[in-house]
Design a protein that fits this description.
Mean pLDDT: 86
Low-confidence stretches: 55-59, 451-467, 571-585
Radius of gyration: 37 Å
Number of helices: 38
Distance between the termini: 88 Å
Helix content: 40-55%
Length: about 900
């Protein structure tokens, strides 16, 4: 099920002229009750009919106070065969709507469904379906009422709030979404009484219910199913038990249970109520098998004509078949194994620990075509050995031999026992005596922290999801991407399924999705062979493929212009500050750990079973919320100094602030001059990106704050005069963009000219050489700039500026140089003259052509250019207007 699976036909609330009925499930709770009220406001002419009994508290509340709000009809007074439109709220299961189920297959019946439960086999299919996995169905309807501008009275808002508060556990259930909060906020604005909501939800327990609660505690048995503890309790009563679901919920909280199933015989029927707070136990799916319904965290079922013991046996069988096993070692381990041979020296081992930024190395030895595990050595041991000047001693002398290991199928309990019980820093995962992964103490700590919070994981989420924060963002993708792009991503994910690899959207695309920035540059990382995956995608969708074998990357270009960059998950390390990275294949988490800033480390899985699962390893969502630019580790700028410029660019583009630690590391990078080994091309690439922004002056000013401008060249200074020039450039570019919409020019080049405005001709040429510009760029920004400034000086010196002179001086110059001159001049008449040339003069042409000259028996040659230039000057200066004027002037000149 997608996060927002709406199916509608025109106006969702339009019904025929016949009878329309709003109903819900039996044992109506507050959410169903509130949803019927909200639906009645969408369908004002529909009748409201309860299919069967309601919960006691709801019935009392309803009868006593709120009957006047409903167009209520008794089911006995409705001729079911006359119903033309059936509106179902808070359910889509035929077994839960009583007598209405018999008319579902009747031809001509229009069914409209509003529900928050996940889909299940046998669900009713409607012509209109608005089903979203939110905490309450009434939240869905509240948003619809708000979007359509339908007013809600204070009493109605109170009832609808009651439904939201009950079904979200006052916003504490894991099923609660931000949409539930927003719906409640709207209802509060409409006058909802929270005092009444609180009084109705704080149900007092009667003496009978205390006895029931005690019986449930006494009869409770704890079953360990696939490593999960599931509590099952039974009781028998000849009478109906009021608020049984509420008692089960209280019991789960009192005993701090992960999952509780309570079975109660009440008279001639058996009720089963389930509560779960972990994803491995899906209460809704388990009880759906027993004819009930609900969602992952809460569900119920009513079984008739079966004894209590038989229902319990059936439940235990379903639990054994449907409870998902806890994650195994294979799901939690890091791969590939970072290891070494026993013969390397302690000094070399230190280099490997630093290179891969790990705290322990697995030691293996080739045997029978595989790597046999010998032991491991920790950073602590290596550092102590170095302290004792044992640099050249072999690792085998000090490694920990015969380490405790686990198989890929080991569960969390076994992993925890071995790491903690044996005080082992790293736990190898071994298959056939060969290490295939490792689990570290840090991994275990992260897992246990997540377990303590009981944050439910999304189904099908992979290893990476279990070590990072996860959430579903399908709706976000659907809302912010064009439909064709969204569909393309889904299909690419299906390709990943077929070739059995995990594929993820990464980088700036994911970041900009959360920042509401437009970005359709798709970057994919796959855990596997990225080039082979890209090749298959290109074949399936008739795309063009370009590969970079050295880096394991590829680009797929589609016919409609969309480009997708594909990379294998990789690890990079640097031999020296500022050098290009050395690339090796790796896991997704290690691939993200090589990124520049936390905000660029989120990934979204696109495989079908986990489509839209966001994985946040390094707190990117936190830093986005705090509007903070943070590096991933303290040596980030040492390894790649260009990240400094990226930090400033992102800070200014998004209105963020560089974090205190990151700012200190930038100052350190400048102080230690890590930029001296940086290739000019890499520095120029970052500079171009900054200068291509809409307002690069802010970034240049920030670079000046960090003393980064001398890194480019000592002649570059950001003074008040420079700031004024950048402001002038902004005005000129805005004017030009408005005048010549869509005209192509290098925006960054105009800003670059403003940046080096204080540099002399030789200094400017030196800057171009240091930045390793292409010959064309160097001609434009070096010789071209010098020529432009000379011509500008000449124009500023002249008192009169005929149009022909403007044309002659400005014609040889590129657009970028003209815009720079226009911004740089302090003479208003010169600015107006350049503006006139750009707007009009550059497009002027003579009406007399070379063919006319040939007809006049003038011999072809350089004289043609002289004649036409003379005629053009006359036209520019207003001396001729028509072709006849030009011919007359030409004859006069010849005479």
């Amino acid at each position: 099920m997608t996060e927002a699976s709406d199916k509608s036909c025109g106006n969702a609330t339009r019904t025929g002229a016949g009878l329309a009925v709003i109903t819900t499930h039996a044992n109506t709770d507050f959410d169903a009750f509130a949803s019927m009220l909200a639906a009645q406001k969408l369908y004002p002419h529909a009748r409201v009919v309860f299919p069967a009994s309601q919960e006691s508290s709801l019935r009392n509340f309803f009868v006593q106070s709120m009957v006047y709000l409903f167009n209520l009809v008794n089911i006995a007074d409705i001729d079911l065969d006359e119903i033309e439109t059936l509106i179902l709220v808070d359910t889509r299961q035929p077994s839960r709507i009583g007598p209405f189920a018999r008319i579902l297959d009747r031809p001509g019946l229009s069914i409209h469904i509003y529900d928050h439960h996940p889909p299940s086999p046998g669900d009713i299919q409607g012509q209109v379906e608005i089903c979203r996995p939110w905490g309450a169905t009434v939240s869905i309807l509240t948003h619809l009422l708000k979007d359509r501008g339908i007013s809600i009275t204070a009493d109605e808002a109170t009832i609808m709030s009651l439904g939201i508060y009950e079904d979200t556990g006052s916003f504490t259930f894991a099923s609660t979404t931000q949409e539930d909060f927003l719906a409640a906020a709207h209802l509060l604005a409409c006058g909802a009484s929270l005092n009444m909501v609180a009084s109705l939800l704080s149900r007092e327990i009667s003496p009978q219910q205390i006895t029931v609660l005690n019986d449930l505690i006494q009869n409770m048995e704890r079953h360990r199913i696939h490593g999960i503890e599931v509590a099952v309790s039974t009781l028998s009563s000849d009478d109906y038990i009021n608020d049984f679901a509420n008692l089960v919920h209280k019991l789960r909280k009192m005993e701090n249970l992960d999952a509780l199933f309570a079975i109660a015989r009440m008279g001639n029927r058996v009720s089963v109520v389930a509560r779960s707070r972990i994803s491995e136990v899906d209460a809704g799916k388990i009880l759906a098998r027993m004819g009930g319904g609900g969602h992952r965290y809460a569900a119920s079922a009513t079984i008739k004509e079966q004894p209590l013991v038989q229902v319990e046996e059936s439940l235990l069988k379903s639990l054994n078949e449907m409870v998902k096993p806890r994650q195994k070692a294979r799901d939690l381990m890091s791969t590939p194994v970072i290891g070494t041979q026993p013969g390397i020296s302690i000094k070399e081992a230190e280099g490997l620990l630093t290179q891969y930024n790990v705290n322990a190395l697995i030691v293996t030895q080739p045997a029978d075509g595989r790597e046999r595990l010998l032991g491991f050595i920790s950073r602590q041991v290596v550092e102590k050995a170095l302290h004792h000047h044992l640099d050249s001693v072999a690792v085998s002398e000090y490694m920990s031999c015969d380490p405790v290991t686990v198989s890929p199928d080991a569960d969390l309990v076994e992993i925890q026992e071995k790491i903690i019980g044996h005080k082992q820093r790293i736990l190898p995962v071994v298959k056939d005596d060969e290490p295939i992964g490792v689990i570290t103490r840090t991994d275990l700590l992260n897992i246990l922290v997540n377990e303590s919070y009981r944050m439910p994981e999304q189904e099908g989420a992979q290893l990476a999801a279990n070590r990072g924060r996860t959430r579903k963002v399908v709706r976000l993708l659907d809302e912010r991407l064009p439909k064709d792009i969204f569909s393309r991503i889904q299909k690419i994910g299906e390709v990943a399924d077929e070739i059995k690899i995990h594929a993820y959207l990464v980088g700036g695309f994911v970041r900009d999705l959360f920042l509401m920035e437009k970005n359709l540059d798709l970057d994919l990382v796959v855990e596997g062979d990225g080039i082979a995956f890209a090749r298959e995608v290109a074949r399936r969708f008739s795309g063009r493929l370009h590969t970079h074998e050295v880096f394991g990357t590829a680009v797929v270009a589609f016919e409609d212009g969309l480009k997708v960059d594909v990379a294998s998950a990789r690890h990079e390390y640097y031999d020296a500050p500022g050098s290009l990275p050395i690339v090796q294949t790796s896991s997704l988490k290690m691939d993200m750990s090589r990124r520049d800033f936390t905000i660029n480390t989120m990934v979204i899985q696109i495989n079908s079973d986990s489509f839209g699962t966001l994985i946040d390893f390094f707190g990117a969502q936190r830093d986005i919320k705090a509007k903070s630019i943070q590096v991933l580790h303290n040596l980030s700028f040492v390894e790649d100094p260009t990240r400094v410029f990226r930090a400033i660019r992102f800070e200014q583009r998004f209105g963020f602030t560089i974090g205190k630690l990151t700012a200190g590391l930038i100052e350190n990078a400048v102080r230690m001059d890590f930029f001296k080994t940086l290739a000019g091309k890499r520095l120029f690439a970052e500079l171009k990106l900054i200068l291509s922004e809409d307002t690069p002056a802010k970034a240049i000013s920030r670079m000046n704050d960090f003393a980064l401008l001398p890194v480019i060249h000592p002649c570059i200074r950001y003074t008040d005069k420079a700031a004024n020039l950048f402001a002038s450039v902004k005005e000129v570019l805005s004017w030009y963009d408005l005048l010549f919409l869509g005209d192509s020019y290098n925006r960054w080049a105009v800003h670059f000219l403003a940046l080096i405005h204080s540099c002399g001709p030789r200094q400017a040429a030196h800057v171009c050489r240091l930045l390793e510009m292409s010959p064309r760029q160097e001609r434009l920004l070096g010789q071209g700039r010098r020529d432009a400034l000379m011509r500008l000086k000449d124009l500023e010196r002249r008192k009169t500026k005929k149009n022909s002179l403007l044309y002659k001086r400005l014609k040889p110059l590129a657009t970028e140089l003209l815009l720079y001159m226009m911004a740089a001049t302090t003479k208003e008449d010169v600015k107006q003259g350049i503006s006139l040339y750009i707007r009009q003069l550059q497009f002027e042409k003579t009406l007399v052509t070379g063919k006319d000259l040939l007809n006049m028996q003038i011999k072809p040659g350089p004289v043609y250019r002289e004649i036409l230039d003379t005629l053009l000057a006359a036209r520019l200066d207003g001396k001729v207007k028509t072709k006849e004027d030009e011919l007359a002037l030409l004859k006069k000149k010849i005479a």
